[in-house]
Design brief:
The chain has a seven-stranded antiparallel β-sheet. A six-stranded antiparallel β-sheet has the order 10-8-7-4-12-13, with no helix packed on it. Helix content is 6%, strand content 33%. Mean pLDDT is 81; it is low at 1-23, 32-40, 186-194, 225-239, 474-483 and 536-542. It has five helices and 38 strands. The protein is mostly beta strands.
Length: 570
């Protein structure tokens, strides 16, 4: 079942706040344009909603989990199923603990292109990405060398070894920033019947199996020289605008697959990325999303002419408005707008909260995007199987990924030292006329990670064996203290019948690991994830808002590996 993320009615609430046209960097809503050259493919209509596309093809993709722990490596394939247009794509790896940016870059896919890469553990213990692919990347060295994941955004109090461990698990965001059309950009002001040839398309289009990646052309994507808004009525786009660089509104059509492989035991797990599609309400077709182009550089001022970070992301560490935190001087909650906890760089954008549909320019726009994506992913409970039969050496790890939690609550490493409960910074959804999914009521800070109570109602954890015998249970957190059901970390791993081990059996996970020991070696489990109720307090047995979770069960034995996607009651 598809769930609407941003409907036309919500878009109307923020209407009239869009940019006039296209500067270099920013988010720009599609406007009416002249047809392309005679005989060209039809131009899709403007999207007015976003949905989770069960078919796995969309504008935005989410890989729920990657790992390089132990002898594991993760393989990633991204396919452009659009055989006419190229795509400019942001790829961002986020850490399992608190969704910190641990590696990102820009990828240019030609029509019908497949980009493939491997993420493995390097000699220094950090994850590293390498690829022999011939597609263009920014920076260009991503395609030509092994790239160790940086640790500058991680908790500075950690040792180098601890920081390296933090790079070895997490999830991946894949966001289409723009289309690259072969016959030129979508002209904002002219009605030319035959747009000029697109130099950017020529630079990224494979020739005899290799993309030219023309340096002089790709260099135009590195910087934002205008910092403002291009007038939509201009006679012709100029080089400094996004359209002048050869970019236009994204039509989606990306898909991705991931594979986790144990390079020693040769056990493998694989699956498809979750797809978010910008589409046309009442149809099953994709539309044009907002163009969300940001250079792969770090010279973004918090506010430039027409470019305000608060209109582009709901990340409470990057924003100066719409956030709640504890003032260390008074000990009281505050919504102060004094300063940002992290100075945003261009490479921080776009993210999952950047407005992809509807009007842009309001500080509430990314909050609405994040809120509705959170709601679409929210589940009241999760069901799946497990297999831990010792005679065949079977183990099962359940992965829970919450890719939108960063836009609800984040950990501010630089505000309080050592970290404490006051290090949590929340998005204030009330400023966007909505209700929080995460607050001090259902979250805590444990081992420098935000933990969220999975179920504040009466569902809890229920386990059945293969012969219908059922028991109620609770999480047993290693090394064995019984506590309430909770998820610690943005991407947490729940190891079934793992005793008090500090690494899980199937995935060797350790960054955000919890152990759940139950009475039977095989069967299935129901886990309540009701979260807060609509009033923001404990649900007390009533249906809550749910938690935005993705994931699967990873089962492994001496002879096989299997992935069973979670089933959700949403």
């Amino acid at each position: 079942m598809k769930k609407s993320i941003l409907s036309a009615s919500i878009a109307a609430m923020i209407g009239g706040l869009g940019f006039a046209g296209l500067a270099n960097a920013g988010v720009f809503a599609p406007i009416a344009v002249a047809p392309l050259a005679t005989g060209a493919a039809a131009v899709p209509a403007n999207a007015d909603q976003q949905t989770i596309n069960e078919a796995g093809v969309g504008h935005i993709l989410i890989v729920p989990y990657f790992t390089t722990q132990g002898t594991n490596a993760t393989l990633l394939n991204i396919t452009n199923t659009d055989t006419i247009n190229g795509k400019l794509v942001k790829i961002r790896f986020r850490g399992a603990s608190n969704s910190d940016d641990i590696f990102d870059f820009t990828l240019a896919l030609s029509p019908g292109d497949v980009w493939a890469a491997k993420v493995s553990q390097g000699a220094d213990g950090r994850s590293q990405l390498e690829t022999g692919d011939k597609s263009c990347t920014l920076p260009s060295f991503v395609a030509t060398q092994r790239n160790s994941f940086p640790t500058s955004r991680l908790n500075p109090s950690l040792t180098d070894a601890q920081k390296a461990n933090e790079t070895r698990e997490g999830y991946v965001e894949i966001l289409t920033m723009a289309d690259i059309r072969p016959a030129g950009f979508r002209d904002q002001g002219t009605a030319a019947a035959t747009p000029a040839a697109n130099a950017l398309f020529t630079a990224i289009k494979h020739v005899n199996g290799v993309a030219p990646c023309t340096t002089a052309t790709l260099d135009l994507l590195k910087t934002d020289t205008t910092g403002g808004v291009q007038n939509g009525a201009a006679a012709a786009p100029v080089t400094d605008t996004a359209t002048g660089k050869g970019l236009t509104f994204p039509s989606g059509r990306l898909m991705a697959n991931w594979t986790i492989i144990d390079t020693v035991k040769t056990a493998t797990f694989s699956g498809a990325a979750v797809a978010v599609r910008a589409g046309i309400a009442g149809t099953n077709t994709s539309g044009l999303a907002n163009l969300a182009f940001f250079p792969q550089s770090d010279d973004l001022a918090t506010t430039t002419a027409g470019l305000d970070v608060d209109t582009l992301t709901a990340d409470p560490l990057l924003r100066s408005t719409g956030r709640i935190f504890t003032d260390p001087a008074t000990g009281a909650n505050t919504t102060s707008t004094a300063g940002r906890f992290i100075a945003a760089s261009y490479y921080d954008l776009p993210d999952l909260s950047t407005p992809y549909v509807g009007a842009v320019g309001a500080t509430t726009a990314p909050m609405i995007q994040a809120k509705n994506l959170t709601t679409a992913l929210a589940a009241q409970s999760v069901f799946n199987e497990y297999l831990t039969t010792t005679s065949i050496g079977a183990t099962t790890d359940w992965v829970f990924s919450m890719p939108t939690r960063r836009y609800n609550v984040a950990v501010n490493y630089r505000f309080t030292s050592p970290l404490s409960t006051n290090s949590r910074v929340y998005t204030d959804w009330t400023t966007a006329g909505s209700t929080n999914h995460f607050s001090s009521v259902n979250t805590s800070l444990v081992n420098n990670q935000v933990c969220v109570n999975a179920d504040t109602g009466a569902v809890g954890v229920n386990q059945w064996d293969r012969e219908e015998t059922t028991t109620s249970s609770q999480f047993v957190i290693s090394p064995g203290t019984v506590t309430n059901v909770r998820f610690c970390g943005e991407t947490s791993v729940l190891a079934i019948n793992n005793g008090t081990n500090t690494a899980s059996g199937s995935l060797s996970a350790s960054v955000a690991l919890q152990n759940l020991n139950v009475s039977a070696n095989e069967g299935w489990i129901s886990l309540g994830t009701s979260g807060l109720n609509a009033a923001g307090a404990a649900a007390n047995g009533t249906a809550g808002l749910g938690l935005p979770v993705l994931g699967a069960a990873f089962a492994k034995s001496s002879s096989f590996g299997a992935v069973w996607p979670h089933r959700f009651q949403r």
